[in-house]
Design a protein that fits this description.
Elements (H helix, E strand, L loop, with lengths): L8 E13 L11 E4 L2 E6 L1 H15 L5 E4 L2 H13 L3 H12 L9 H6 L6 E4 H13 L1 H20 L12 E3 L7 E3 L7 H12 L7 H6 L15 E3 L2 E3 L6 E8 L9 H7 L3 E21 H8 L5 H14 L7 H4 L7 E7 L23 H19 L5 E7 L18 H13 L1
Antiparallel strand pairs: 1-11, 1-12, 2-3, 3-9, 4-5, 6-7, 8-11, 9-11, 10-11, 12-13
Length: 430
């Protein structure tokens, strides 16, 4: 990629209609909402829609990818069993010994057996392989540590605890029995291994996993391994006011009323085996996100292929669902009605400010057409204000039936998403 683009942002704005749905629920089970511009709006959190984008991205990405999980000790233990021929319990102890270098831990028997740490960890497949290689390099020290740990293992698990993985040989007083002392395992020989583990994960704040480079990583227990995400994303918010409705539903008992007789119906009632209600809403949503191309290159390292990442990210953003809540009950998947991409020198904007005044419903028109017109006007106003100050290139795709609603973006329209993607990639090259 041309280094002149490293100070640039790739900004995306889109408008998307979601039919009756509940893709992102609040703690009560209702669709998320927010109060904006004096009215109640539907909302899909940035965490919700971007997770679907990340999953879609990883399905298509040809290269290293990350996973956010508390089960990395289990994954590492499986590798150690397969490649270093450890028994399951020994493999788990080695995995927790290594991951304790990040500050992650486990203190219960059930989480130890499951290979579950106390915190989520966003690690990559490459980092997992590096940890296995470190375990192989330090296997004699690890085997010695297992000798130290095994005597207390059974007692700890019987008490519902996990064995201690602290690198310490110091004596500690038992508070329950005055004057008695408990000797923790002497694991001081693993300090060098811990340093290697930390170095493999910190890796100068760079990563070969493209999704980690995009979405960033936060490890509260090892802050030096944190990576600033290059992708900023907004919440999806409806361009208009919404009302939350409730769908009352029943699941019928297939064996009820099998003979169709009146007596059976009176005994079993309506034949409903289960019933309930499900909150729902619908609307036209607007959203923006922006990729700091310079930060993306920094995260990937000098040899990282920014263009390849963008080639995979934009199709994922276009096609991914906007949340999986009740997706089988509502099938709310849709494509953006208007999708706009900008390469800008600075000042990546959020198009939701275009809808601070909610779009009003017009008879026989709905909200979509007016939402498209409102975004078109906002885009023109912002570019007019920034003219001579910030250089911006724009391309967009809109549903053919909505082209007549555009007054300003029309010269920048592409006939398809494929053509838009090629235009964006050409920007990055030149």
């Amino acid at each position: 990629m041309n280094t002149t683009k490293l100070g640039h942002f790739l900004t995306v704005h889109w408008i998307q209609t979601l039919p009756i749905s509940n893709p992102n629920r609040d703690r009560s089970g209702a669709p998320k909402t927010t109060y904006y511009g004096g009215s109640m709006r539907g909302r899909i959190s940035s965490q919700s829609w971007s997770r679907q984008v990340r999953e879609t991205f990883n399905e298509k990405w040809e290269g290293d990818a990350g996973n956010r999980s508390r089960l990395w000790a289990d994954r590492l233990a499986q590798k150690l069993q397969d490649e270093l021929e450890y028994e399951r319990t020994d493999a788990l102890m080695v995995a927790f010994l290594m991951l304790s270098a990040t500050g992650a831990k486990t203190d219960k028997a059930e989480t130890f057996r499951a290979g579950q740490t106390d915190v989520l960890m966003f690690l990559s497949n490459t980092e997992l392989e590096e940890l296995v290689a470190i375990a192989r390099r330090y296997q004699p020290q690890l085997d010695q540590a297992l000798v130290e740990l095994r005597p207390n293992l059974t007692d700890a698990l019987n008490q519902g605890k996990a064995p201690s993985f602290e690198i310490s040989g110091k004596k500690s007083k038992d508070k329950k029995k005055k004057g008695s002392e408990e000797v923790k395992p002497d694991l001081a020989g693993l300090k060098e291994l811990h340093e290697r583990v930390q170095k493999a994960i910190i890796h100068d704040h760079m990563t070969s996993a493209a999704d980690v480079a995009l979405f960033g990583r936060f490890l509260a227990s090892l802050t030096d391994a944190n990576i600033d995400g290059s992708l900023s994303r907004a919440h999806m918010v409806t361009t208009h006011s919404v009302a939350v409705e409730t769908d009352f539903w029943t699941a019928m008992d297939d064996f009820s009323n099998s003979s169709g007789g009146e007596e059976e119906e009176s005994t079993s009632g309506s034949g409903a085996g289960h019933l309930g209600d499900r909150p729902q809403t619908s609307g036209v949503y607007a959203c923006s996100c922006a990729i700091d191309l310079g930060q993306l290159q920094v995260n990937l390292g000098e040899g990282g292929d920014v263009k390849k990442v963008i080639r995979t990210f934009l199709p994922a953003l276009i096609t991914a669902s906007r949340g999986k809540g009740y997706i089988h009950q509502f099938h709310h998947r849709s494509l953006p009605n208007l999708f706009m991409v900008e390469l800008t020198e600075s000042c990546p904007l959020n198009c939701l400010v275009a809808f601070e005044k909610p779009v009003e419903l017009q008879k026989k028109e709905g909200y979509l057409e007016r939402s498209v017109r409102q975004l078109d006007t906002w885009w023109h106003d912002q570019n007019t204000l920034l003219d001579g100050l910030v250089k911006t290139q724009t391309c967009a795709v809109v549903e053919p039936s909505l082209q007549s609603q555009l007054s300003h973006v029309t010269p920048h329209l592409e006939p398809s998403y494929g053509a838009l993607l090629e235009t964006v990639l050409a920007w990055l090259e030149g």
